[in-house]
Specification:
Radius of gyration: 20 Å
Shape: globular
Oligomer: single chain
Number of strands: 2
Structural class: mainly alpha
Largest sheet: 2 strands, antiparallel
Strand content: under 5%
Length: about 325
């Protein structure tokens, strides 16, 4: 039933929300601030390789095995990975349970109050959420049917092209992280990333005739949009060490909200331009004009993120003292 499906999605979201926050908190413990962006970029790169594997290979598995069996095997793989992590994770050098006493526990309400009253946290989080829209709104949902409609591709073929966005993330994440750390600046690489993402998304929206050109643009979209992870560095360096986990969780919340808001809005625009009676395999089929009208909202989000950037203070890769 639909309610059980919704419950499953909610549980998946709760579980997945710990992934990036947990990794970045561990990175903040193991590595100095001047290396945090690079480690964050590497974390995103590995994560996006998993997302790339969830596009075309997933479509093939669903066609061969069915969606229920594919999800079941994915769940079993997740349990196996959890067991490996439970055994493999070690404390950082010089860190143990005893050292927790050196940093008194901060109640959740107090932590959230401190974070939510910080202007820089809101600005960086809003920037990150807007920059994440091309990934969660286009790559995560509407990109595959858009390419199927535009180029008469099969679903696995379109998914293979969309996976280039995640490959681009895997390439761009470490590069932006390394560049930001090497120049001890956050805002400058974020400006480059935002302009590059805007250019790539606008070119994709204009729909080039060549599939090869489209593939290159999708790769560029992933490379440049990966620069948004520097917002995590800005927030991490705007708060004391004891608040880094909660602060990065705050950024991640706004990222998730960007998907929760952008995907339905894009769908509503598509429904508005839907031609009555056009269905494919029982699902509504949308024209290219409808996709163009809906996807134009993504460059608008990127322009807004550009307008936010001048108000984000430079941290110079220095963590705030407790």
């Amino acid at each position: 039933t639909l309610m059980i499906a919704i419950l499953g999605r909610v549980l998946m979201g709760i579980g997945a929300s710990f992934a990036v926050v947990g990794c970045l908190k561990i990175a903040s413990i193991w590595f100095p601030p001047r290396r945090f962006a690079l480690v964050a970029g590497l974390t995103v790169a590995i994560g996006m390789l998993g997302a790339a594997g969830g596009q075309a290979p997933m479509a093939v598995l669903v066609n061969q095995l069915g969606w229920r069996e594919t999800l079941l095997y994915g769940s079993l793989l997740g349990l196996a990975l959890a067991a490996v992590l439970w055994r493999a994770m070690k404390p950082a050098p010089g860190v143990s349970e005893v050292t927790v006493d050196d940093h008194p526990h901060i109640p959740l309400a107090q932590a959230l109050k401190t974070i939510s009253f910080d202007k820089q946290t809101w600005l960086a989080s809003l920037y990150a959420g807007l920059m994440f829209v091309p990934t969660v709104g286009f790559a995560g949902l509407w990109g595959v049917p858009y390419l199927m409609q535009a180029y008469a591709l099969t679903r696995p073929e379109a998914a293979l092209y969309i996976s280039l966005i995640y490959v681009g993330w895997a390439i761009g994440g470490p590069i932006f992280g390394w560049y930001s750390d090497s120049i001890a600046r956050r805002r400058r690489p974020m400006v480059v990333a935002t302009f590059g993402t805007l250019f790539a998304m606008q070119a994709i929206w204009m729909l080039p005739d060549s599939l090869m050109v489209m593939g290159f643009l999708l790769l560029l979209l992933g490379i440049f949009s990966s620069g948004f992870v520097l917002a995590f560095s800005v927030v991490r360096e705007s708060h004391s060490e004891r608040l880094t986990g909660a602060a990065m969780g705050f950024v991640n919340t706004l990222n998730s909200l960007s998907g929760a808001i952008s995907q339905p809005i894009l769908g509503l625009i598509l429904d508005y331009y839907w031609i009555q009676g056009t269905y494919v395999d029982g699902a509504r089929s949308y024209s290219l004009d409808a996709y163009h009208s809906a996807l134009f909202s993504i460059p608008v989000c990127l322009v807004i993120s550009l307008l936010i950037l001048p108000f984000i203070h430079e941290t110079y890769c220095k963590a705030r003292a407790d």
